[in-house]
Design goal:
Helix content is about 25%, strand content about 25%. The chain has about 375 residues and is an alpha+beta fold. Helix 1 packs across helix 9 and helix 3 crosses helix 8. The longest helix has 26 residues. Bound molecules: FE2/S2 (inorganic) cluster and fe (iii) ion (FE).
Length: about 375
Amino acid sequence: MTLLDRTTATLPAAWYYDPAQYARELEAVWHRDWVCVGRLEDLPEPGDYFLADVGSERLVVTRDRDGRPRAFHNTCRHRGSTLCTESRGRFAGGRIVCPYHAWSYGLSGELLATPKMKLPSDFRREDYPLYAVNIDTWGGFLFVNLSGQPATSLAEFLGGEARNVERWPLASLVSVRREVTTLACNWKVFWENYSECYHCPGIHPELCRVMPLYREGVLSYADSREAPPGAAGDLRPRVAPGFVTWTLDGLTRLPLIEGPSDADRAPGVVFASFTASLFVVAHPDYVRSVRILPRGPERVELTVDWLLPPGVAEAHPGDIERMCELGRRVVAQDGRVCELNQQGLRSQRHRAGVLMPQEQSLHEFHEWLRSRLKEVP
Ligand code: FES
Ligand code: FE
């Protein structure tokens, strides 16, 4: 990464709280891109479902009779009632039944029955399936795309970042801990904070003990005063010598995950970032994923999962807290500064901020967002 060498402004402060700007960003990003809404393991059986809100759209995510994931708008084709109200459950008899006039739909969205209703002579059931949403999976993560015709496949969208963690068996891992938090900040505030380490020395003392590079406030040895401690030319951030993973003492009592090579494991941490709904942090012994969904101009929901191979949590019940502790502290520390950032942005004197060299990645994020906004009318 090159560092910014010119004074560069941030996005306008109002973009972090103005409802009209929020609506534009839903259109330009959240209603157009592939967005992660959960894990396949959240739907163990056909007919299991959960609700997911993406931007202003409310979705039902389920598995059809063949086990394939499906997503629909949570809206009945009759007169538009909400179909499902419980946040998760199982459709009895494999039918999705509207609570208003009891139209029922199959798990593939087909309209099955319109009870007690005299049908117009030209009414064709096949014309009224549920509103389907594109859905696909990667590494056990479920992604939806709300645009009628996605500009890219999920694989293209994930791109090279997915390769960073390709040897971790993500699809077979199971979530052994899930923590959901809502922060009082705009989604961009959280994503920006994730994208820079300028704040690390002051905000993350425990993480900086594990990751010496972060004490310099940078994310790559390309930007460091120190020589990279790993193999020649390997500029990736890495844990301190003798440490193996992200725990408070840098050590683990869990078995190493099979799949990654020794070279993959050597840094102790590998990132894969999928702007702006998911990042995956893979360690030799566990994987942490963070999902991000906007919940309003000044609210963002985070879902953190700690993932392990099946059976490991049962075999090591006393070590799970230990595995979670560092990540949990980091998320809490980031959450606090994100909320402080949001509050300060509201000052009528503050029109925009200024980026420091270590915040080059924010500039790239801002340029990306501006170009996305130009693509919608
Ligand atoms: Fe769903 Fe009438 S609105 S059956
Ligand atoms: Fe942080």
